[in-house]
Amino acid sequence: MGRPKEFDPDQALCAALQVFWKRGFDGASMTDLTEAMGITRPSLYATYGNKEDLFRKVLDRYEQSHLCFVAEALDEPTARETIDRLLKGYADVLTNPLHPPGCLGLNSAVCGGAESEPIRQELIARRSLSEETLRKRLERASAEGELGAGEDPADWARYVMSVGLGMAVRAASGATREELYRVAQIALRALPAAQAASRQLEGVEA
Amino acid sequence: MGRPKEFDPDQALCAALQVFWKRGFDGASMTDLTEAMGITRPSLYATYGNKEDLFRKVLDRYEQSHLCFVAEALDEPTARETIDRLLKGYADVLTNPLHPPGCLGLNSAVCGGAESEPIRQELIARRSLSEETLRKRLERASAEGELGAGEDPADWARYVMSVGLGMAVRAASGATREELYRVAQIALRALPAAQAASRQLEGVEA
DNA sequence: GACGCATTATATCGATCGGTATGAAATTAT
DNA sequence: ATAATTTCATACCGATCGATATAATGCGTC
Asked: How far is A170 from A91, CA to CA, in rounded Å?
């Protein structure tokens, strides 16, 4: 009942995603958002709540639409392939010309005024969650004999996340996809030779 | 002639450095700055110019005071020691409890409103300059036989900078120094074995 | 057609943004 | 002492910030 909406809330959310991605949470003004979304301020507040609420909805959408490759990467058979696909997939997203360069979850996380501290905390929490997921995957790899005896999966998860974040910063500064690929390629070299795992996979060991 | 200043411009600049470091360029308001510096707005504008001018002066001071270890690292005899000292030294700065966590040059670089675009461009330019310096150092290492035949110094410079930037993001999110050390340690493993260089240094080759 | 309801459009809220105009206070030169 | 000069304190500038109050508009229901 009542007057129907004149816009598609999901489509408008995508427009907001682009603005937040490019400007960050603090840098995106309500005027920027409403203009890009093609709606008025009251419509925005009625549909999504305040700026923080809108940003959290954008974040959810971002993870679903642009970070879905992470789940696939974690399903790779080896840690090496997981990390390789993680970094390559991340490089693809960071430099996709269909979106602003860099990572939405990073562009709003590093700096900002005192009033946006809750947002930064939320982004830190989400990133920790990602890292924890990767760590668990690497613990499995460690249990399966991959990743030598003295290696700490937590250290490796931290390392991979750090390389990814560094790539994100570089992407936001204009790095090309090929440059990021080469960074990922070099980063992979830090991995132990992983002969144990490949032997195990090829059935040589038994 | 005239009334003498009631504050030390250099000391006030350090106070401004702290604020910009913590909040980033956009996130630091003139009120934040004047309160931390202990001076009034007219004094600030008369002494340093506008907000952008002040930030550039802060940047110069930052590089002199907190990034001086870079020059020392570049003087190390081998590429491995250079990179090691670079990443360790960076980790030290990023987690020094005397300053806000993270990197000033990064905290203001990633996100922000449209009006602070010139600042972001300047930060990108300064970072490119750093990377170029590192690349030249690695080219020397390559010419000296370190860094295997097929290795591109530019790729390695990009890789090292990416790891450093990732560490900076993590530091801004609360990472500890030990965590960053372990990231740096793993990052170093990507380097080729460098037997040629060590042989050369030890005089074994001749 | 009249009523109730949800969504629009317009105008505006107080607060804060970066940046200044205006004088009073404090120093040196005369 | 007086004039010249510079800094400091106060108040304020127009613009923009996120967020709303008010009322006109469009729909389903009765």
From this structure: 10
